[in-house]
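Researcher: For the record, we're logging two predictions in this thread. I'll number them. Prediction 1 follows.
Model: Prediction 1, sequence and structure:
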Amino acid sequence: MADLTFAHVSKHFDSTPALLGLHLSVADGEFVAIVGSSGCGKSTALRIAAGLETADSGHIVVDGQVIDHVLARDRRFGLATQRNALVGHRTAEGNIALPLEVRMVHRDDIDRRVRAEASQFGVGHLLRRRRNQLSGGEIQAVQLARALVARPRVLLLDEPLARIDLDLRHRLRSDLVRIQRDYGVTTVLVTADQEDAMVLSDRIALLDAGVLQQVGHPMGLYERPVNTTVARFLGDPPMNLLVAEVTGDGAGHAYDVAGQRVACRHRTAGHVGSRALLGVRPERLVLRSADDRSATPTVVSRTEPRGSHTILELSSDAIRDESGQPVTLKASHRGVGIRVGDRVGVWFDPDSLHLFDPRTGAALGHAA
């Protein structure tokens, strides 16, 4: 296998920047997910690594060797995308065999390896079928088998689990994690689906407008986002951000937020009288009675039952996200029976608050 580095890679399409100095190293055998919203540059990065696009500046480096001028077919990378890229006149077996045929592997070895790879992804019984006889999920499984059958140095995945039904998506996730670990293949996944990224990857790299924002363990990004961009992207629903004022007296600093005086737990709280931007995850807001004097009264404007918990959308002048959108709260058993129009109270736990610079969005302190 191999290690892969995007060494200060930039790319523009006409005058529009797609990537701006992306520097990211993927260790031998590591699974890294590049995430971000549509247009952030993640697919461009993958296409440059695959040799399907040329960078304006910077380099793609594999095992210490610059491969910018190596043709895509000679990079020995595996590639699977969400697009149906199966050859129509070939069977599933013939499609999986293609990378081995290009390398002129002996026919007996091809047959053995194709059957083994198809079995890994649960499509061994479909090898005689053609593209138009396969479901969307089966097509993706065949494409993943084809990407791995030649034991690539690097596996590149462009949202291969998008647009398939949930049950098969979960199965393919499990298959992909197991096979990637067994083979030890260096893998880069690009996706806008944070759940795929959190479940599959060793590390996440988050892009926004072509700029790398943060790299780290999935839960590290979730619990300690470096800025509001990362905080907003990870989480369903995303982190609430509320404007507060830093106050203080002899007892120490506090935040005035949504009518509550909340003890300040952050060392970099700023000066008394300054504005602060507080972040709180929906699952860490505390639901209380509307009559609780320690809580902020509000009205439930929408409910979204999700089985193990219920998402409550809260609407009032007293408590509102800095973007102007309603605040969301994730309630477990306490959300059962709550309806639209009900009055509830919301309490802020001082240990649940993240602190961000209201001008730059940079993180200044995190929840306990």
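Researcher: Logged. Prediction 2.
Model: Prediction 2, sequence and structure:
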Amino acid sequence: MLQARQVSAPSWQTSPVQPKTFPVKRTQTRRGIRKVQLLFIAITCFTLSLMVIAQYSYLVVLNQRISRVRAFVEEIQETSLVLEREAAELSSISRIDFLARHELGMIEPAVNQFRVLAANQGD
């Protein structure tokens, strides 16, 4: 009977407890997949941030161009106003009369210096 008891003894008394082991390959593939996912997310975030920065820098360049063009338009408008005033001064009747009398020596004609010519309609 002694032998029967040894054979029928519970397994926990005779064999040491062994920890449950997981397959190494499965956890390594999960870790690898997780790393790839994190790398993809990081690259995507980096690319998106570069796109945002590029858009803002393009916006800054466009604002600089707009301000330069506005300044150029204002300068042209000022030049146009100056030229319009100058043209008005040069074409004024009083200035033309002054130049004719003093620089060119012209005088107003007398009444007897006028001649009326009639055109012949028959000839």
